[in-house]
Amino acid sequence: MYDTGVVALDGVDLDVREGEIFGVLGQSGAGKSTLLRCVNLLERPTSGTVTVDGQDLTVLGDAELRRARRRIGMIHQHFALLSSRTVAANVAFPLEVAKVPRAERRARVAELLELVGLDGKAKSYPAQLSGGQKQRVGIARALAARPKVLLSDEATSALDPGTTQSILALLRRLNAELGLTILLITHEMHVIKSICDSAAIMREGRVLESGRVHDLIARPGSQLTRELFPLPEPAPPGSLTVTFPAGQAEEPVLSGLVRKFGVDVNILGGSLEELRGVSVGRLRIRMEGEDTAAALAYLRGRGLLVEEETP
Amino acid sequence: MSPEELVPVLWEATAETAQMVLWSTLLTAVFGLPIGVLLVTTGRGGLTPLPALNAVLGAVVNIGRSLPFIVLMVAILPFTRLITGTTIGTVAAIVPLTLGAVPFYARLVESAVRGVSREVVEAAQAMGARRVTVVLKVLLPETLPALVAGLTVTVVALIGYSAMAGAIGGGGLGDLAIRYGYQRFDTTVMVITVVLLIVIVQLVQSLGDLLARRLSHR
Ligand SMILES: Nc1ncnc2c1ncn2[C@@H]1O[C@H](COP(=O)(O)OP(=O)(O)O)[C@@H](O)[C@H]1O
Ligand SMILES: [Mg+2]
Questions:
Q1: Cβ neighbours of residue A227 under 8 Å, at least 6 residues apart?
Q2: Between the ranges B1-5, B156-160, B181-185, where is the mean pLDDT highest?
Q3: Does ligand 1 lie within 6 Å of residue A38's CB atom?
Q4: Which of A120, A266, A268, B42 is the one with CA 20 to 30 A from B133?
Q5: How many helices (H) and strands (E) does chain B have?
Q6: For the whole model, what pTM was predicted?
Q7: What is the biggest distance separating any 2 CA atoms in chain A, rounded to whole angstroms?
Q8: Pick the residue with more confidence: A236 or A248?
């Protein structure tokens, strides 16, 4: 709660597993930044605990907290680079803070710039870089002290779509290569779609739902599913909304339905999305015929999620 | 005055102005910088919020800024005597000059430091930086060009104030212009002095601009 009386977060309970990319989706003002800032205690929650890598940060003293923060990298929407420092000196900053000796710093900086694909830019100043390059510097800097966790506050929101994709790909690669746990917040669904293993949806300081993306999609009434596959809501009476979880979207389910049960199928709407390379779909249909009950059972038997709108 | 007489007089006056302005600039930077930084860091949402100290500093700075220099100079004569042991002369003039310029420069520093984005400060804190590190390695380097630009404005203001310091025997170019040009109707001295002041101000401003530009990587 802020001293203005705003309760920015209320009853938030998130569990981010080691080594995963966890995305928090929500509109502006939902409390996402506040949530992220609570993780490294830039914002101290009025109540509750924050545990990172097994350590409760809320009980730490000043010096211990500063040490713990070095194990948590952070990247920012507007990059937060020091305009007075070169790229190399920006990346070296957290190492200076951690009192790493100069020679060691220099070697580490070279290594990091190569990791994020900025080898030739060591002596440039941030003002001479594009947005995507600036965020790469931000990422290199965040990783300098070898954190286990990376926090990302709308890291791609100021970037164009192409650059966004390349930054997301970089995050994905770092996650895979370094085993880095990433907690990111975004108001853009496509960020969740393209790189997140797990997700949470926030609204007005509360978490509406959270879990692995594929689990959430298989859950009836999921808000994430609705945002991911926008169909006219509410569903018209008598309609069926069928969600095809991972791998099922390519199966010829509908033709089987028509053939086996002699029902008529009207397609009212639908969409297909790639979730980290796996097709997932959602279809709204109306089914008419003799044996609709058996047809429904058939669909459910194939592992599809069927939500009925009672007429 | 003949040219032979004029040159040494001008030279001496220029040296006095330089002495007053340089010393008071140095002292202004020494006191104005921390006060300006504190005005930001002790404020609401600052690094070390201390509302009481912030209010006092703000009030003192405002009082200093609202006093006309000539009034300030006379009002603090006892203080000047306490510090320098005298109330007349070039050295004595440095005290009111500094006192007059510190609040001015502190406000310029304050607004420069406010220009550093919250995100940048938080980024440093998120890396585990101490507050003093944030000030020394983030706030000051990031505002250095603006601090230099502000100091340039202050130097120019000090050159102006220093003319008034002639009133307490501070000497300098302004004093020369008043004594010879105004009181003795020596127009030549008046004109030469004014031209000299203009040239000096131009030089200072250009130098300051150049330095600020060199330091800026935005
Ligand atoms: N420093 C602050 N003081 C008071 N209220 C704040 C502060 N920062 C954010 N808020 C409020 O908290 C709520 C959540 O903000 P935020 O976490 O920034 O949302 P998001 O990042 O999802 O856009 C908003 O209503 C915002 O106005
Ligand atoms: Mg935000």
A1: A25, A189, A201
A2: B156-160
A3: no
A4: A120
A5: 10, 0
A6: 0.89
A7: 79
A8: A236
Domain ranges of chain A: 21-217, 230-308
Give chain A's contact residues with B (Cβ, < 8 Å): 37, 40, 42, 65-70, 72, 74, 76-78, 80-85, 93-94, 96-98, 125-127, 145, 151
Domain ranges of chain B: 3-216
DSSP letters along B148-167, please?
A: HHHHHHHHHHHHHHHHHGGG
Mean pLDDT of B15-20: 93
Q: Where are the alpha helices (DSSP H) in chain A?
A: 32-39, 62-69, 87-97, 102-115, 131-143, 161-178, 189-195, 213-217, 223-228, 253-261, 292-301
Tell me the two tokens of residue A176: 């895979």
Of the segments A241-250, B33-42, B167-176, which one has the largest average pLDDT value?
Answer: B33-42
Q: Which residue carries 């999609």 as its tokens? A: A217
Of B79, B82, B123, B128, the closest CA to residue B99 belongs to B79
Find which of B47, B116, B118, B127 to mutate to test the A interface (most A CBs within 10 Å of its CB): B127
Rg (CA), chain B: 20
Q: Which of the following CATH numbers is that of domain A230-308: 3.30.70.260, 3.30.230.10, 3.40.640.10, 3.30.70.100?
A: 3.30.70.260
Question: How does pLDDT run across A9-33, given as a tens digit for each residue?
Answer: 887 888 899 999 999 999 999 999 9
Ligand 1 centroid to Cα of residue B118, in Å, is 14
What torsion do the CA atoms of A213, A215, A221, A225 make, to the nearest 10 degrees?
Answer: 30
The Cα–Cα gap between A90 and A125 comes to: 9
Nearest CB to A42 within list B122, B133, B142: B122
What residues of chain B lie within 8 A of the CB of A99, using their CB? none
* SS3 at position A174: helix
| Cβ separation A78–B119 shorter than 8 A | yes
With H, G, I as helix, E, B as strand and everything else as coil, classify residue A144.
coil
Domain B3-216 in this protein, CATH class: mainly alpha
From the candidate CATH numbers 3.30.505.50, 3.60.20.30, 3.40.50.300, 2.60.120.1440, the one assigned to the domain spanning A21-217: 3.40.50.300
Q: Using the mean position of ligand 1's atoms as its centre, give its distance from the Cα of residue B120 in Å.
A: 18
CA distance B46 to chain A (A): 13
